[in-house]
Amino acid sequence: MSLVITDLHAQLEDGTEILKGVTLEIPAGEVHAIMGPNGSGKSTLSKVISGHEGYEVTAGSVTLDGEDILEMSIDERSRAGVFLAFQYPAEVPGVSNANFIRAALQARLPKGQELDAVAYYKSLYEKMDLLEMDRKFTARAVNEGFSGGEKKRNEILQMLMLEPKYCILDETDSGLDIDALKIVAKGVNAMRSTDRGMLLITHYQRLLDYIKPDVVHVMSAGRIVKTGGPELALELEEKGYDFLKELTVA
Ligand SMILES: Nc1ncnc2c1ncn2[C@@H]1O[C@H](COP(=O)(O)OP(=O)(O)O)[C@@H](O)[C@H]1O
Ligand SMILES: [Mg+2]
């Protein structure tokens, strides 16, 4: 059981290649982190895995528990168990948070089966309590007028409710103050499980003080250039991303 990315190449519509052969395996039960400088292709990788438009895969494969997901629509990938918490979460005007998550859960049920409303709200409130989110966020339109930190927390709420098999968190730590970071980490740690794989994308080591990864990858210029244990994140923080230059030359 794993999310396997093999020699993935992807380009923009204008032909600019952003991912230049990414190979990565995230087994269920493990938490992996990808660190790397701005512009190295981290968000592009997460969007290509989740099926975002605007990127063309020119080579390589992405499989989820052995199943090729590159031919699937965003929706199908989501139902297959991929979840992406966006670096810049989108606003969905006119749709309340509670209805948005409810619709996503309903869509996962077999035809004709109705989501139990009482159980749904009970679970929603439990998760909001864990994330210290005010109940007023159930009625507000998805992310509309939310602060940066509130949007990030809301992404984690969706993740907790959908219980995806593979979670990708793109810079969920950026824009969070330390208290919010701890709360988000609590939510993510609550999701850790032997049958779930997680990929944390982050520019900073800070998040990894609260969510201990099993494996750390360093991405630079569209490739994974180094893989190691949690100590790699500390090394990167200490030396800065300049040390990548040595790696790319070597
Ligand atoms: N839709 C897009 N249009 C134009 N350039 C893009 C687009 N998506 C990504 N890029 C470019 O691809 C490179 C990698 O971007 P991104 O994946 O966001 O990097 P990271 O998340 O590591 O900071 C950057 O140079 C960025 O400007
Ligand atoms: Mg990014």
From TrEMBL:
SUPFAM superfamilies in the record: P-loop containing nucleoside triphosphate hydrolases
Gene3D superfamilies membership: P-loop containing nucleotide triphosphate hydrolases (3.40.50.300)
InterPro entries cross-referenced by the UniProt entry: AAA+_ATPase, ABC_transporter-like_ATP-bd, ABC_transporter-like_CS, FeS-cluster_ATPase_SufC, P-loop_NTPase
UniProt GO MF annotations: ATP binding; ATP hydrolysis activity
Pfam family, one: ABC_tran
Keywords in alphabetical order: ATP-binding, Nucleotide-binding
UniProt keyword Calcium, yes or no: no
Metal-binding found in the keyword field: no
Domain ABC transporter: from-to ranges: 3-246
Family of the protein in this entry: Belongs to the ABC transporter superfamily. Ycf16 family.
Protein name from the UniProt record: Fe-S cluster assembly ATP-binding protein
Source organism: Haloferula luteola
